[in-house]
Design goal:
The chain is an alpha/beta fold and 365 residues long. It has helices spanning 16-25, 44-61, 75-87, 100-109, 133-139, 212-216, 230-235, 245-260, 263-284, 309-321, 346-364, and strands at residues 5-6, 67-72, 92-97, 114-120, 147-150, 152-153, 158-159, 171-174, 191-195, 206-211, 289-290, 301-305, 324-325, 336-339. It binds pyridoxal-5'-phosphate. Pyridoxal-5'-phosphate binds next to helix 3.
């Protein structure tokens, strides 16, 4: 079976082991005589799958009991609305605008209240995490319901290497593209949320981890749709309506794979080694250059380009011939992007590195 080297930003590569296990259980799940696809979400068998999935996520991320875990639908994008609708009780929140999705989250929040842009790196086309000192200063004023960041900027290849200090103000983080790629100190956050389709499972599942007091201390805004109300979802165990049953089951398989293969510390070590290999090449080869400022470089999405769009296109076409897929940059920025999530192994990154070296040598001769 020929599997490509899949560098797609999401939906992204899944561990082969997970796909094989899922295939073996697809028609008859553990002697139930039916597929998980065919199972009622109200059945005892499915509730066991759900409970095991949540328990495994709690173990790998060391999620304290003071946090609620939800498995919802609508992607990170729907959470851009759910966040203000649940938390903007006094009508004002702070946003750090560090990329396209951070900006979308900010713009969505402006529909429901005052969303203050505390810092932005748009002036240099989001090539860095902006200076965060205004965040701490504004947090100290005590007038914000929460402060929102996008921890890893998938399109621009930047990530926070240090979280902003927000004092008593809950920090809300979109971790879609760095979720489960390294340990997270959950207690630093009020809310973390992620679309599953990078490191956690298939598209169509959104994981929301919210500090219980934030949903217990007050109701959502009156205009909040019932589905988006975290307190209601928590009371219903994420089953207010029919959840993405198969997607959640598949997430459980990925969580178990992470646990089996060393947990998040091991994921981080592998991800850093993969990123270092690519960044050292980008720093060493004249033909390619990284687009993110070195101090803000992501360990999940490595963005780079050559001197011209034509050469970029030639590189991408040659990659495909070598079974290297998903390497084109996002349509907003062009160039190249290697998304090196957990399921992308070192052998794939070495194949890409070898091709980059070969491409450069061919240009010189
Ligand atoms: N936030 C980040 C950091 C992302 O990378 C993405 C999608 O790639 C989104 C939000 C949007 O997620 P979704 O498509 O799940 O709504």
């Amino acid at each position: 079976m020929a599997r490509v080297h899949n560098f797609s930003a999401g939906p992204a590569a899944l561990p082969l082991e997970v796909l094989e296990q899922t295939a073996s259980e697809l028609i008859d799940y553990r002697g139930c005589g039916m597929s998980v696809l065919e199972m009622s979400h109200r059945s005892a068998a499915y509730q066991r799958i759900y409970d095991e999935t949540e328990a495994c996520l709690r173990r790998i991320l060391s999620i304290p009991d003071t946090y609620q875990v939800l498995f919802l639908q609508g992607g990170a994008t729907l959470e851009f609305a759910a966040i203000p609708l649940n938390l903007m009780r006094r009508g004002r929140a702070g946003y750090v605008v560090s990329g396209n999705f951070a900006k979308k989250a900010w713009e969505e929040a402006r529909r429901y209240g005052e969303a203050v842009a505390l810092a932005s790196s748009e002036d240099t086309n989001f090539d860095r995490i902006p200076d965060l000192s205004p965040v701490a200063e504004r947090a100290a004023c005590g007038d914000l319901d929460y402060i929102h960041i996008c921890q890893n900027n998938t399109i621009f290849g930047t990530m926070y290497h240090e979280l902003p200090s927000t004092g008593e103000v809950p920090l809300v983080a979109d971790v879609s593209s760095c979720f489960l790629s390294m340990p997270l100190d959950i207690e630093r956050y009020g809310v973390v949320y992620a679309g599953a389709q990078k490191n956690a499972g298939p598209a169509g599942v959104t994981v929301v981890i919210v500090r219980r007091d934030l949903i217990e201390d007050g109701p959502a805004l009156p205009i909040c749709p019932t589905y988006l109300d975290w307190r209601t979802q928590a009371a219903k165990g994420s089953m207010l309506n029919t959840p993405n049953t198969f997607g959640i089951y598949l997430c459980g398989k990925v969580f178990a794979w992470i646990e089996r293969t060393g947990g998040l510390a091991a994921m981080e070590q592998r991800n850093r080694a993969k990123a270092e290999l690519l960044y050292s090449l980008l720093d060493g080869i004249d033909l390619f250059f990284g687009t993110a400022q070195p101090a803000s470089r992501s360990i999940a999405n490595v963005t780079f380009r050559t001197a011209s769009p034509e050469l970029d296109a030639a590189f991408i076409a040659g990659a495909r011939e070598r079974g290297i897929e998903g390497i084109a940059g996002h349509r907003l920025v062009g160039g190249m992007r290697a998304s090196i999530y957990n399921a992308v192994d070192m052998a794939s990154v070495e194949a890409l590195a070898a091709y980059m070296t070969e491409f450069e040598e061919n240009r010189r001769t």
